[in-house]
Structures are given as C-alpha cells and as structure tokens.
C-alpha cells in the first residue's frame, strides 16, 4: 500500500513555520483558486482554519492564482515551476509500465502532469519517471490507476 499524506499546502508556500506565523485565515487564496482544489479547514497545530489541498480528492492544477491573492505573503507569487508543494515518489513495483507481465502502456501520470516533459518524463521513451523538477501538485497521485505514486509534502520534507 502506498504512503498517503492527507494534504498539501498551496503553491508558493513559505516554510511551514513561517506559514503558520503569516497566514491570517482570510481565505482569499481559496476564493482565487479556479479549480476549487483549495479548502479552508481546521489546523490542529495552527488553531484556526488554513488553506489545504486534499490532492487525493482534488489535486492542484497549478493555476497559480492563490499566491497573488495572499495579503500576508504566506504564499508567494511564483511561476508554476517553483510551486514547491512537495515531491512525487513513484513505486515501480506498483506501476503498470514497469511490470513485465502487462502488455499495455499506461502513461496516465505523464500525460496529465502540468509540467509534463520536465517534472514527469518518460525513461527510455516509455516508462514514467519523476525528476527533481516535480513541484508536488498531486495530479499524478490523483490519476494513477494503481496508486503507484505518493506525493510527500514539502512541510514533511522540511522536518527531515
């Protein structure tokens, strides 16, 4: 079973510690999101509602409207290539394209990646691979039919 992380922070997020200090729970980022993937939900650490992307239900398609809407710079206005939400991890044992017993090509993660060709590439022209250009939007995890991809949120990677 793949690792499942409950939520991601929006694109352009500062460090988690700085985010908690800056976010005023105004919800402007949520209102600006054209794909409705952001939600204001209670945060046990923060004590009030904060914006989150529940990428297993609705991933971020990197519209990049949330950063400019933030009045406190808890989210920065950045290009999609610098969204910094997390990093996808591909489990080759679960991926159809790495299984010799299958005679089909999936490529769903590659085809749906907003940064296709840079964050998600095709190794040897036919097997998906995640590169360091991944920004952790969650689209690949959301669309993967075999749950072979997990996105590790930046806030958790900062702790290690």
Structure summary:
The chain contains six helices and six strands; from the N terminus they run ααββαβαββαβα. By secondary structure, it is of the alpha+beta class. The model has no long low-confidence stretch (mean pLDDT 90).
Key features of this structure:
two-stranded antiparallel sheet, 160 residues, 6 helices, alpha+beta
Strand content: 15-25%
Shape: elongated
**Biggest sheet: strand arrangement:** 1-2
Counted by DSSP, the helix tally is 6
Number of strands: 6
Class derived from helix and strand content:
alpha+beta
Based on CA atoms alone, the radius of gyration comes out at 16 Å
What characterizes the major β-sheet? 2 strands, antiparallel
On the 0 to 100 scale, the average pLDDT is: 90
Portion in helices: 10-25%
- Termini, distance in Å? 22 Å
What is the string of SSEs from the N terminus onward? HHEEHEHEEHEH
Poorly predicted regions: none
Describe the protein's architecture and organization:
The chain has 6 helices and 6 strands. The protein is an alpha+beta fold. The protein has a two-stranded antiparallel ribbon with strand order 1-2. A two-stranded antiparallel ribbon has the order 3-6. Strands 4-5 form a two-stranded antiparallel ribbon. The longest helix has 7 residues. It is elongated, with a radius of gyration of 16 Å. It starts with 15 loop residues before the first helix and ends with a helix.
């Amino acid at each position: 079973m793949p690792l499942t992380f409950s939520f991601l922070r929006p694109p352009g997020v500062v460090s988690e510690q700085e985010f908690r200090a800056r976010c005023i729970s105004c919800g402007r980022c949520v209102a600006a999101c054209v794909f409705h993937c952001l939600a204001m939900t209670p945060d046990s650490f923060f004590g009030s509602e904060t914006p989150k992307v529940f990428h297993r239900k609705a991933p971020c398609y990197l519209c990049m409207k949330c950063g400019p809407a933030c009045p406190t710079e808890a989210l920065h206005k950045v290009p999609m290539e610098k969204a910094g939400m997390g990093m996808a991890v591909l489990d080759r044992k679960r991926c159809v394209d790495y299984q010799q017993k299958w005679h089909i090509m999936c490529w769903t993660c590659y085809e749906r990646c907003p940064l296709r060709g840079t964050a998600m590439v095709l190794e040897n022209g036919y097997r998906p691979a995640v590169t360091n250009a991944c920004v952790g939007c969650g689209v690949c995890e959301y669309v993967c039919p075999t749950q072979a991809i997990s996105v590790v949120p930046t806030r958790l990677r900062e702790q290690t």
